[in-house]
């Protein structure tokens, strides 16, 4: 400041405007910033794109001393630090990228008070020697980004986060804030407790992204469905297509390019230079479709992504909201569309079973998966169903999701469900969906004759529904846990959960009628 004028003492608004070039704060930013500026602890739950970074950057600059920002990904750190330096902020990243000489130079700068924002990985901040070093200088605040990583309920548990709770004792009186875009109530409680932020003020923003239209479609011919969606709604737009595997990323990008779209692949198995070039092209050019694994996205700041499409099922609702949330950060209309089928459910289940995680975590992951499947199969407003998972209760249909825009009919599916379950039971729970449908429809296949299944009472009792309708019934039974796919036995279905109650007629089952969109001549069931 100059000559005691007092008027140009730094203020949150001053920094927002002069440094970051924004006119006004968004949502709860100003409240959070003032609270931390005054020395309070805070926990911030806000969706991706909600502007969480400013919540620690601004008070970090306002308070005396160096602010520490704990961030889990080196690439993300690098980008943030680079962007801050462009703005003239004295920011640095303390990570394994640095050579010995650079480390020494950075340590000298830190001790000399020449660094305002220091980014570091959680495993670094957990080191007693590093903590001891930080204790030699004034600390403005400690921000813990992606704080859901501390919880096993979060979709991205990282054990090194568990140590971060100890920072409460190592730096008494230093305000701490934890930030995350993941906030189902269980993760919220867990995070607050484990980071010892029980006395912190909690700021929860709505996770609603009203400008994003959510749609979920059953896979029939996914590439054609995707192409149709792009041609109908997103001519010349930028967007992201997520696939589960690297191979599928490459195939899909190639196929889209063959259809005349500008599409590029992105996954962790590509040469770094190519991957970086594709990311840069996506960020800079208009009208580019990036086909990616979930390796792409964390920390990516492209406001005009007009759509996010998932060709495979994500792992959880939280993961889905985070990935879909990369659409429409500029507030303009955007689409999030998800394609899924029975095979996806089975694959996700297998990934959990084969993960090698402790049983306790597998249980959590199975519960998360079934919550997502519940959203896929719901006949109610998708937005309401999604938000309820984050503890938010909206009244009335949103008017901007697929189920609101073209309501789904549901029907009393108790009898078809009983037929399907009894087909599974009578054949010894050893057969996959194709054979079971043959049995229900009374088809004269070799396999039916070989197993004498034409002698079963279930043979032919399901001629009233066609193949696609039966697939839908089976899928919905798997989604609600009444059937399980046994992947050790080539996709054989087994009774589970409510199956017995349904068979005994103890419960009524409402099922949804799948909407069917013509996917072109080559349409062929995929499940
Ligand atoms: P999050 O970390 O919550 O995902 P970011 O901090 O990356 O969100 O912010 C998302 C985008 O919103 C960035 O492009 C950022 O520059 C912009 N932004 C944040 N706060 C404001 C604001 N008050 N005014 C204008 N733009 C903002
Ligand atoms: Zn809706």
TrEMBL record:
Q: Which residues form the Helicase C-terminal domain?
A: 222-370
GO cellular-component term (any): bacterial nucleoid
- Which GO molecular function entries does the Swiss-Prot or TrEMBL record give? 3'-5' DNA helicase activity; ATP binding; DNA binding; four-way junction helicase activity; hydrolase activity; metal ion binding
Any idea of its EC number? 5.6.2.4
Q: Name one GO biological process term.
A: DNA recombination
Cofactor (UniProt): Mg(2+); Zn(2+)
Q: Does the keyword Flavoprotein apply?
A: no
Q: Which reaction does it catalyse?
A: Couples ATP hydrolysis with the unwinding of duplex DNA by translocating in the 3'-5' direction
The Helicase ATP-binding domain sits at 33-201
Q: What family is reported?
A: Belongs to the helicase family. RecQ subfamily.
Per its record, how is this protein called by name?
DNA helicase RecQ
Can you name the source organism? Tistlia consotensis USBA 355
Q: What is the lineage of its organism?
A: Bacteria, Pseudomonadati, Pseudomonadota, Alphaproteobacteria, Rhodospirillales
């Amino acid at each position: 400041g100059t000559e005691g004028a007092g008027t140009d003492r730094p203020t949150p608004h001053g920094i927002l405007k002069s440094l970051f070039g924004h006119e006004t704060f968004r949502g709860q930013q100003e409240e959070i910033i003032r609270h931390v500026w005054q020395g309070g602890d805070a926990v911030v739950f806000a969706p991706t794109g909600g502007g969480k970074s400013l919540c620690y950057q601004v008070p970090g600059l306002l308070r005396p001393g160096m602010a520490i920002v704990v961030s889990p990904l080196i690439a993300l750190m690098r980008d943030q630090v680079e962007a801050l330096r462009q703005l003239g902020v004295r920011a640095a990243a303390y990570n394994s990228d640095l050579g010995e000489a650079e480390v020494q130079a950075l340590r000298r700068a830190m001790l000399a008070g020449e660094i305002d924002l220091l980014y570091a990985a959680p495993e670094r901040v957990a080191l007693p020697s590093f903590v001891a070093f930080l204790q030699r200088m004034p600390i403005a605040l400690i921000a813990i980004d992606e704080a859901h990583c501390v919880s096993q309920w979060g979709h991205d548990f990282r054990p090194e986060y568990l140590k971060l709770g100890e920072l409460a004792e190592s730096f008494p009186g230093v305000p701490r804030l934890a930030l995350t875009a993941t906030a189902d109530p269980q993760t919220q409680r867990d995070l607050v407790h484990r980071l010892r932020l029980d006395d912190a003020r909690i700021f929860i923003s709505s996770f609603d992204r009203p400008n994003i239209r959510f749609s979920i479609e059953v896979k029939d011919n996914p590439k054609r469905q995707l192409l149709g969606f792009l041609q109908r709604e997103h001519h010349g737009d930028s967007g992201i297509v997520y696939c589960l595997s690297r191979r599928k990323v490459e195939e899909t990008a190639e196929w889209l390019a063959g259809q005349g779209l500008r599409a590029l692949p992105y996954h962790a198995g590509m040469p770094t230079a190519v991957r970086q070039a594709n990311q840069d092209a996506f960020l800079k050019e208009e009208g580019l479709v990036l086909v990616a694994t979930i390796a792409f996205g964390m920390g990516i700041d492209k406001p005009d992504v007009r759509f996010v499409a998932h060709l495979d099922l994500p792992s959880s609702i939280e993961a889905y909201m985070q990935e879909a949330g990369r659409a429409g950060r500029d507030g303009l209309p955007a689409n999030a569309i998800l394609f899924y089928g029975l095979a996806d459910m089975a694959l996700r289940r297998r990934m959990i079973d084969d993960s090698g995680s402790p049983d306790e975590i597998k249980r959590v992951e199975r519960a998360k998966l079934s919550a997502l499947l519940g959203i896929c199969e719901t006949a109610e407003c998708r937005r309401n169903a999604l938000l309820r998972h984050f503890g938010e209760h909206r009244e009335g249909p949103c008017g901007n999701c697929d189920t609101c825009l073209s309501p789904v009919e549901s029907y009393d599916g108790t009898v078809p469900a009983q037929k399907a379950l009894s087909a599974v039971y009578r054949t010894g729970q050893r057969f996959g969906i194709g054979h079971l449908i043959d049995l229900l429809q009374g088809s004269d296949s070799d396999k039916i004759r070989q197993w004498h299944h034409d002698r079963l009472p279930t043979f032919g009792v399901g001629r009233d529904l066609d193949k696609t309708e039966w697939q839908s019934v089976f899928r919905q039974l798997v989604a609600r846990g009444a059937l399980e796919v046994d992947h050790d036995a080539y996709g054989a279905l087994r009774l589970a959960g409510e199956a017995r109650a349904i068979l005994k007629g103890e419960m009524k089952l409402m099922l949804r009628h799948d909407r069917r969109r013509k996917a072109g001549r080559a349409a062929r069931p995929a499940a």
